Structure formats: structure tokens, C-alpha cells
Amino acid sequence: MRNEDVVRLFDAYSNDLYRFALSYLGSIQDAEDVVQDVFLKLLDKHMFFEKKNEKAYLMTMTANRCKDQLRSSSHNANVDLESVEWQLTGNDGFTERNKAVFDELMRLEDTYRIPIYLHYYSGYSYKEISKILKISESATAMRISRGKEQLRIRLEE
Amino acid sequence: MKETFDKITMDEGRQNEMRSALLTKKKATKVWLAPVFGVLAALAIVMIIPATRTVVVNAAEKLIEIMNFRHNGFYITVQETSGTDEDGNEVKGILAEMGQDGNYESFAQAKDGKLYFVLDGKWKDVTDKCSETNYYRYEGKNKDGSKFEIYIGGTPDDYGYCLFTHTKETSSMSVEYNNSDRTDRAWFKKAIKDNPELKKCMQG
Description:
- The complex is a heterodimer of chains A (about 160) and B (about 200).
- In chain A, about 75% of the residues lie in helices and about 0% in strands.
- Chain A has about 160 residues and is an all-alpha fold.
- The radius of gyration of chain A is 16 Å and the shape is globular.
- Chain B contains 4 helices and 13 strands.
- Chain B has helices spanning about 1-5, 10-25, 185-195, 195-204, and strands at about 30, 45, 55, 65-70, 75-85, 90-100, 110, 115-120, 120-125, 135-140, 145-155, 160-165, 170-175.
- The longest helix of chain B is centred in the first third of the chain and has 12 residues, at about 10-25.
- The relative contact order of chain B is 0.16.
- The interface of A and B includes residues 14, 33, 71 and 94 of A.
């Protein structure tokens, strides 16, 4: 893939991938590393894909890279959520309410948090999520349902 | 949720740095030293490069491959490059990639009450060679000439492996246990005691 093509994808999707990686890993540094790795891989591996599928493909690459990152020594397994939230409050207009929502989502188990993020934030269907995360559609539906229930209980508390 | 995540964006400086690296096709190579050990499926990779989480920008195009381990869908590749850091200083960089592809299977697996060493689809029964305090050791060579050792230890109920890859320049270690993140396995302690290189790798 040519540099300018990769840069076009970077400009269009880097923030989407970053949010996804952050919700996956809970670490700003790790999320940035993952985004960088995904786009470098596009250059390295001479990958091509259809325009209509490009975002889903990049999300899948990001999910795979996040899984690798979780296993890698460079992943900080003990990320302090408060410190991440503190850094996020530096973003324009990131309010206390935003912080509370982020906090509740990040405290969900990975199994539930990631499908919930993909469905309710990114707007992916169960079928699309099952492809991105390489799990069955029924597993996707179950995880979203259970995660939503856990979130509801917490927010009521 | 939408409102919250819409407000999260990558740091502009970091974004520009990445964009610029992509435009010039010069890789921003990560250099790290972060030994993490004993966590389930965690990798501890130890490099000879200074222990900084520094980004090497303007890295040379030529990369020298110094390790290429690919077995069981598990890969560790290490390449060396040189370049300059953000301040223009000459630095050596290591580009290390590790992970698993869709074909990954553990080097240690239990089946029907037996413990097996698994390598590239071949299963070897090592139940009798392993115990809570003892291990089975396999030594192999990668296509690039670098060597690796795999230690299997434990019982069919509580087992694990330690993968140790090394060249003259660098070494890496990864450890995976089947059901716990405890690090005090006696078989593993014995392996470390028997092979000082393992200890050296752990200590960086």
C-alpha cells in the first residue's frame, strides 16, 4: 500500500482505532502503540482491501494487535484507571459525567466491555462484531446482554 | 457513551509524529525493556538495548534480522536497526514483534491425564519426565540459526512451559501456565537453577 493511501486511512480512522484500543487495553500508551503498529503493518505487509471494508478490516487488525499487546511484556497490566481518566480530563470538554461513564465501562470485564463498546459506540451489528472479535454471533449477543445488565445494575447503584 | 468517547482523541503531537513517519516511510521503531514474568501467558522479552521506552525516529531502512522464531503459531521476531531519536542522537533500535496467529497452540498440553510437549503438530508424552519439581527440556534451532529451548513442567493438572530463545546478541523468555498466575513453580525454579542463562535473561 502506498504511503499516501496509508496516511489517508490514518487521517480517517486513527482516532476510531485509538478509542477502540483504549477501551480494549485501558492504557493510553498501549493504545497509541497499537495504532502505530496497525498502520506500520499496512506499509510493511503491502496490504490491500476494498474501500467499503476498510474500517472493519482496520478494527479487526486493531483487535488482533490488542490481543497480542495483552500478552506482550510491553503491556502495562496494572494500569491505574484513575491516572488514565486524569489524562483524559485534559481533552477538551471531558466532563466529570464523561469520566463517570468511562469509568463504569472500563470496570466491566474485557469479555463484556469490548462488544458493548463496538455495538453501542461504534454501531456495529452483532454479525460484524463476531467477525472483528472472531467469536460467534450468539456469544456476541450474550456478552452484550450480560454486560448491559451489569452496567445497568452499577449505574442504578 | 457516544458523547464520552467522541471526546477522546489521540494526543495531537503523537498523532503528527505517526503521520509523519507514515508519510516518509520511516519506521518509528519501539525500543523497550520491560521484563514481566509469571503472569499467565505473559512474555518477558529482554534486550541488550538500553532500557528505555524510547521511540526511534528516522530509523534506517535496512533491518538486520537477529531472531525469527515461528512454531505452533507463536512468533518472536527481533530485528536490529540504527537511526536517530527525537533529539537527533544516534541510537540503536530493536524492533521486536511477538504474538500468536490463528494457529497457535500451547507447547504444553494435557489430554486424558497425560502431559504432552507439542511442537509443530507433533505430540510427545512427557508425563513421566515431568512433576511438580521436575521438567522436560527440548532444544531446537530456528531456520536463522538462533537457538531455542522449551521447558515443560508440572503435572497434567497444573503445568506450564517456558520458552527461551537466544542468540549471541539477545535473548527472550516467555512463560505460560495452564491455570494460574503463580510464579513459584518448583520445576521452573529448578530450570532456572540448572540454566544460568535463564536467570540472566530474567534479570535483564
